[in-house]
Amino acid sequence: MLTFGRLKPKFMILGVQKGGTTSLHEYLVQHPSILGPTKKELHFFDSFQPLNIDDYHKNFPFKLVTNKMTFESTPRYIYYPDVARKIYDYNPNMKFIVVLRDPVKRAYSAWNMYKQMGESESMRNFFKKNEITSPKEIFFSLLYSKETFPNFLKMANYELDNELNSNFIEPSIIRRGYYKEQIDTYLEYFSLENFLFIDSSSLKNRTFEELNRVASFLNISDFNSLELDLEMKHQRVYSEPLSVEIYDELLLHFQNKNKGLEELVNLNFEWMRNKASIHV
């Protein structure tokens, strides 16, 4: 279908954080039928500020006439409250791609990212100022206002101990792994046919196979004939290994929280079935 003027997103990569969304985004913009936005994460529908749709659209390409499509990739969209309704009000036919990663490894990767971000004074100042406009995001108060950055277990337990009565949204290394309930929230508005779910390990190990699933989902040509840069993006070195004991304990928690996920998304996840100890 031809588009005239400013392109509007036809699909979104919803998440999950630390699941490989940056790599997938960079793969997709190499396809001749897809044009990327000005930046990957636009954080429009998860903002607590009033929405200005014209400002949002300025992030996307302008073409006099084109048959190409555009999209955005904001991993917080799958987790943040009320985002599904906002997107539905914007476009009830929106399509979504969701990359799902072992939630323990995802949580540990997020903790490691926040720890490394705290080494930057500019990032600490950013989070401090952000709490004024987003009081439910307490990154600075919880993580960066202390002398010592909390270890992974302490940060995980903070969420687990406050699971039922917490008012904060961020940081959220544990609750971001409750994939089943997050997807169910979107299904209150959108049909399951609007979604493509990808196992992050399959995206990493069988990249072209997964990209061709994306192509079929978006009704574009496959990726087989394209020479792609398949370098994985945003890979960080871990400051320390995750202990086997903590992995096993959290794995059981996430398995219980995600009962029914495999049937819902029609994928089999090793982490949902595996009770063996796995190092990150």
UniProtKB/TrEMBL annotation:
UniProt keyword Transferase present: yes
Family annotation (InterPro entries): NST/OST (IPR037359), P-loop_NTPase (IPR027417), Sulfotransferase_dom (IPR000863)
Domain Sulfotransferase: 9-221
Single Gene Ontology MF annotation: sulfotransferase activity
Keyword terms: Glycoprotein, Transferase
Keyword Ribosomal protein: no
Top-level lineage group: Bacteria
Descriptive protein name: Sulfotransferase domain-containing protein
Organism: Winogradskyella pacifica
